[in-house]
Amino acid sequence: METAERRTAKKPDPYEAAIAEYNGAFTAMNDKGLSLLRQRERSTDLIEFVELLVNSIANTPKSFGTDFDEIDIHKAQFLAAEEFARKDLDAARKSAAGTTAGFAAGAAVASMAPTAALWVATTFGTASTGTAISTLSGAVATNAALAWLGGGAVAAGGGGTAAGGALLALAGPIGWTVAGTTLLASIALFTRNKFENREAKNKALTSVKQNTMPIKGIDARIDDFLRRTTSLRELLVQSYSQTLRCFGTDFLALPAPQQSQLVALVNNTKACAALLNKRIEQGAEDE
């Protein structure tokens, strides 16, 4: 009985363990990325309300106008990044639908949530995501789309297009570029019976491990952005609530404490807007 148990007992597979660790790291990063996107979108909505309030007040300091010019630039850049992602996602879907990669691959791209594209584009920016998916073609475009849009979990078993699509995220949401598409298109599927030899499996295992640590590092930086953005937005909510009673008034007629509150409101709005476009750059500090 003991011998039979030993024979049937499944030995720990370092390959499966590495995939599980990668999946956990990717999921955590993706969740934080989505949360950051939501906080930033809520910030842009709040900024619009603040601007309406300030514009309703007569005789505000000229510096307010300059400040809101800067605020509007930050807001416009953030919204432009979202629009870029939406258009690129649409182009990727059209490209995938016409490729030879098969119906399943095209369907995988078609079903991708727009939020995946949005959080990547607004967190990493077009400079670090590489060439737009829409400039690629054929199966490479499908592969890049699946990778960029965060089909993050890597399948340890099974096979088919779903596993292949998930694998493509190994390069991470910022890993694909024109040079990187070759890697994305050629890596073997991560299934036990897909490897030609032990060397191929070891190479794949090394790739998983090499990509796990950067994902964890990105997760930590996104978490920093998320905490700072949330904190500033909550502060701005408080500041906005305190100054709502000033709507439609004359700044010069307000008592000094209320004038100070309005100045603080504008300063908090500037700080909040500046964080909208904080990006994670590969090989460089965020700007």
Q: Overview of this structure, please?
A:
The chain is mainly alpha-helical and 287 residues long. It has one domain. The chain contains ten helices and no strands. The radius of gyration is 24 Å and the shape is elongated. Mean pLDDT is 72; it is low at 100-105, 126-193 and 283-287.
Topology:
Layout: H1 2-8, H2 14-55, H3 62-97, H4 103-110, H5 114-129, H6 138-148, H7 160-167, H8 181-186, H9 198-243, H10 256-275
Helix pairs in contact: 2-3, 2-5, 2-9, 2-10, 3-4, 3-5, 3-6, 3-10, 4-6, 9-10
Give average pLDDT, whole number.
Answer: 72
Order of helices and strands: HHHHHHHHHH
Range of strand content: under 5%
- Tally the beta strands: 0
- Classify the secondary structure makeup into a structural class: mainly alpha
Count the DSSP helices: 10
Radius of gyration: 24 Å
Query: Which percent range fits the helix content?
Result: 55-70%
What general form does the structure show?
A: elongated
Number of domains: 1
Alpha-carbon distance between the termini? 63 Å
Major pleated sheet: none
Uncertain regions: pLDDT < 50 for 5+ in a row? 100-105, 126-193, 283-287
